[in-house]
Write a structure and sequence with these properties.
The protein is about 40% helix and about 15% strand. It has about 400 residues and is of the alpha/beta class. The protein binds 4'-deoxy-4'-aminopyridoxal-5'-phosphate. The site of 4'-deoxy-4'-aminopyridoxal-5'-phosphate (PMP) has 14 residues, from helix 4.
């Protein structure tokens, strides 16, 4: 019995997409020229799909600290945080993040995925209820399946739907509501104030994933909860180093006095190796830089608004009415056009993410652009022009805005 046979439909679906030269799963960055440019198969390409929102991948202090840590501590820790894998750098990073958020405690994980997996599966136990947004990231769904809690979904970003679900649950049961600040596919922001206020009215604990909002939302870059002044309603804030922080890793901050017990019970924290010292050192410097990066934040928002307005004026259908984040998603009519569009745009020298059903909300066919604070205004204009040119090449008719 061939255990891979069950994936025949996936193989068939993938083979049905008419790529001529390359496909989104085979892109190789031969050389990264800067935060915003790379050589892909010999072509000079503008990167507009990297999640490198704050452009921290080449931040000089982060680079220098990583190099020093490599020389002093070696290439890896070869152990779990609860055995031999906690170095001074890990403790320093946890303090830096706790201070950045103004919270008592921080736990650093090896990825953001593991942070969600660990917290969600551990916090909500057998007798508890886990209430999640229907459009949650895979790491939230996977945390829900790994744990023993009863899972209840509510309609995306809908506080009334959340309230309806909460109302039906036993008053005295443990409840954890999980939401995200910015949703990664469409780039839409959550109405966190309403969602968190409802949650608190029903005595639920709350976890907010700020993976796609840390860095540029809020006056110091802590995320949507900071922006909306509702951090006091968050029991746990989760984040990642793989986007605005420019490296890899994940974290959770909390003011809960017993938060540290999670280090002894959270399996995705305990049963995996800790982050390499070089990564820890660069994350620490990048977060310090984010805290004082007001100008970068402002330029990133200018870029986002410019790209959104330019594509809208050209007649593209966009996933949000205005730029709610540096993620600007263009909706295309079907997977075949999406496939041709994505490949033609890449040949034109612009890399974006193609996202199709079932990875997208509502089964949309998306060209998902994500901007960087280091994109120049000229690069943003070039992205817009190349989108327009690509639309003409693939025969996509655009409805010009009045
Ligand atoms: N949460 C959300 C909302 C995400 O989009 C992602 C990654 N795309 C993660 C968590 C996981 O982050 P990491 O890349 O650090 O595993």
């Amino acid at each position: 019995m061939d255990l891979l046979e069950k994936f025949a439909p996936v193989i068939a679906q993938r083979n049905s997409l008419p790529f001529d030269n390359t496909d989104p799963f085979k892109v190789v960055m031969d050389k990264v020229i800067s935060e915003t440019e790379a050589l892909i198969e010999g072509r000079h390409t503008i990167l507009a799909g990297t999640n490198n929102y704050m452009g921290m991948t080449f931040q000089p202090d982060a680079l220098e600290a990583a190099k020093q840590a490599l020389d002093m501590f070696g290439t890896g820790t070869t152990g779990s945080r609860v055995l031999n894998g906690t170095y001074g750098g890990h403790k320093q990073l946890e303090k830096t993040i706790a201070d950045f958020y103004g919270m008592k405690s921080c736990m650093v994980f090896s990825t953001g995925y593991q942070a969600n997996l660990g917290l969600i599966s551990t916090l909500a136990g057998r007798e508890d209820y886990l209430i999640i947004d229907g459009d949650s990231h895979a790491s939230i769904y996977d945390g829900a399946s790994m744990g023993d809690a009863t899972v209840v979904r509510f309609k995306h970003n809908d506080a009334d739907s959340l309230e309806k679900r909460l109302k039906r649950l036993p008053e005295n049961a443990g409840k954890l509501v999980v939401v995200e600040g910015i949703y990664s596919m469409l780039g839409d922001a959550a109405p966190l104030k309403e969602l968190l206020e409802v949650s608190k009215r029903y005595d639920a604990m709350t976890l907010v994933d700020e993976a796609h909002s840390m860095g540029f939302c809020g006056s110091t870059g802590r995320g949507v909860a900071e922006d909306l002044g509702v951090e006091h309603l968050c029991d746990f804030i989760v984040g990642t180093f793989s986007k605005s922080v420019g490296t890899i890793g994940g974290f959770c901050v909390s003011n809960h006095p017993e938060f540290d017990v999670l280090r002894l019970v959270c399996r995705p924290y305990m049963f995996t190796a800790s982050l390499p010292p070089s990564v820890v050192a660069s994350a620490t410097k990048a977060i310090e830089a984010i805290a004082r990066a007001g100008n970068r934040r402002a330029h990133l928002w200018e870029n986002a608004r410019r790209l959104h307005a330019g594509l809208k004026a050209a007649g593209f259908t966009l996933a949000t009415q205005q730029a709610e984040s540096p993620i600007i998603a263009v909706c295309l009519p079907d997977p075949l056009i999406a496939t041709r569009f994505w490949e033609t745009l890449l040949m034109e020298g612009v890399y974006v993410n193609m996202a199709l059903s079932p990875a997208t909300p509502g089964g949309l066919n998306l060209m998902r652009a994500s901007l960087c604070a280091q994109h120049t205004t000229e690069q943003v204009d070039m992205i817009i022009e190349r989108f327009k040119h690509t639309a003409a090449s693939v025969g996509l008719s655009l409805e010009k805005a009045a």
